[in-house]
Amino acid sequence: MGRMQMELHTGIDLAVALIRQSTLPTLLETATAQLTRVFGLTRCWALELDLSGRTLHCAELAERGEFDCADFSHPFSHVLRSGQARELSRAASYRLDHAGFQALFDASDRPRSLWIEPLVGADGRTLGVLVLCRDEPEWNGIVAQPLYNGLTTVLTHQWVSQLQSRDQVWQRRMLKRSLDTLHGADSLRRGCERLAQELVGNSVAMNQLRARLSVRQAASFRYWCRVKPGVARMWWPVASTICRSELKGR
What we know:
Layout: H1 3-19, H2 24-38, E1 43-49, E2 55-57, E3 66-68, H3 75-82, E4 86-89, H4 90-95, H5 99-107, E5 113-120, E6 126-134, H6 140-143, H7 146-195, H8 204-218, H9 232-249
Antiparallel strand pairs: 1-2, 1-6, 2-3, 4-5, 5-6
Helix pairs in contact: 1-2, 1-7, 2-7, 7-8
């Protein structure tokens, strides 16, 4: 089997492994492991840009894994601003006064060179930043390979798919919440209309009373009416309405 055929089979196997990932964290973990192994890197990182576009997140760095995109003391902001990949030497990395970047640099065993590349989906949406680490400063031999370009293309495609799935789940939850709210409001209105047949009056206090009774009836609450001496006759219509409502519900 020739070299091109081997690369083709390798690329297919790697792409299938990425497509099989069901969550964004496992997708990023698989992709970075693949790139590290296939291209002989010392470390590979995938930083996720949040929905606001203001912060990059790196889960592996825990509390130091957040990078403000408006803070240009780390190199990721420059890469996102320019939209262009760049190489960063070890000497330049030492000079950067940013605790989060230095934590990433240390966790990468202080490589001689870093390749920092923005990842953009086919729709033009910026997804995050890819950071490759190695002890050789020559990167063209890696990033110009069809295998590398193919893997990053599959990665960004699956990344967008994961975000779309996440958005759809969020939209379904918001829709359900809105429908529940509408249903609750409609039930409250109908409950108040039923109570208005017996608890007559349009004052603010009477409207609030009907609303509270309607809510409690819908929730199947039990009631205990306690009133001051001398006002029982005033509260008798309320108590009798509650009792009839409970009896109807049984």
